[in-house]
Amino acid sequence: MSKSRFSSDEGPSQRILRVGENIRHAISQIIARGEIREPALDGVSVTITEVRCSPDLRNATIFVMPLGGENEKEVVEGLNHSAKFIRGQLSKMVSMKYLPFIKFTSDHSFGEAGHIEELLKSPRVAQDLAKDDDQEA
Predict the structure, then answer these.
(1) How many CB atoms lie within 10 A of CB 100?
(2) pTM for this model (two decimals)
(3) Is the pLDDT at 1 greater than 70, yes or no?
(4) 133: Cα separation from own chain's centroid
């Protein structure tokens, strides 16, 4: 049985990852220059954590997080409201046959990392780790 070129169990190709990284750098520059006239973005420092492109490179999901996580919903809505302007600026910076449509969403990986850190420091896990250390000695 033949495998599909776009099989999801292998993960994204190097090309898709490279395009996503180029888009991430370009959008970071656009936001840093302060060209976006959106009230929700005034005085807010935004981190672009990841860009995931579809296999056909027609759509891109941009994961963002405002510094400190404050006004996260408003910032994401402001970026989505300005998506057409950002895409227009992006077309001047990234050379592609078809520029992907962009959609901004919140990145919750920081919260998940904090939750895992708390679990690892919990007394029950520390107790299990102490048992493992006693068995090795």
Answers:
(1) 22
(2) 0.73
(3) no
(4) 38
